[in-house]
Amino acid sequence: SDGSRLLARDEADEHGFAVWDATTGARLHSPRTPSDTELVDLLGQPGVDWQNRFVRAASGNVRHDKSVSSHDETLLATGTADGVQVIDRTTGQQLIQLERRATKFSAMTFSPDGTKLALCLEELGPTVWDVASGAMLAGLSGHVGNVFAFAFSPDGSRLVTGGNDGNIILWDAESFELVAILRGHQSYVYSVAFSPDGTMLASASGDGTVRTWDSLPAEKRWRQIQAAQRSRREAAPMVDELLAQFTDPPAVADHIRADRTLNDDDRRARLRVLLELTTAARSEATRESTP
Fold first, then answer.
1. What is each CA distance from 106 to 13, 121, 134, 229, in whole angstroms?
2. Labelling 220: which of 30, 113, 135, 214 has CA 20 to 30 A away?
């Protein structure tokens, strides 16, 4: 969930999976942090449904065919023959029942703070509900056909939907006004997700593609690009020093992540420079080894 590791299925590995450093692309043959050790121990257990367990550990937003957990896992929304209900996971007590007649739905998700639940009901289409009262806050009109995917931005200010019409729509999560329609997929969109900082959006479609989108206005993005370029220029000499000290790029990445003197922007800049340097080095090594 912090973006530092990537889990990939690998049938050739004895555990059936591999863990990679997401900054350098290096495969981690041994755990480097306590969280890596816990992950390897968990996934190595026989009979463990590791895919669902890893999704739970990484996002806190576990999705099943007919249920979804809040990010802090205190709430569970589930579809039953009586409709959609929200349950307190610690006590098992039903808190509210949403729209008893709506027994068929195609997607749902909680807002990051757990106060809103977005879901697509067969009878009503995409809707947003207040979890505390069970009242419907808004119906989202913009898609043609079913909505198959919802995602709130990490700060809860935006809601994105993807549907049968192949479109992706960004909504203001407070006013529920349509912000933008993103077109490009040639078939239905079945999965959407924000980046951890909320500035990028990924979508997966039945056309066989995954697309990434910029979720920020153009002027704000341009200012960010200029600031990021300045930060990377300033970070380059420092990353060179760390590479000379540690020599191992994953070790440098771990050092940068653990440095509490850095703010988030400086940390991202150094990791970006490290990625560019290691990618360039890998490309050069490939060219030299090619006859």
1. 35, 7, 19, 42
2. 113
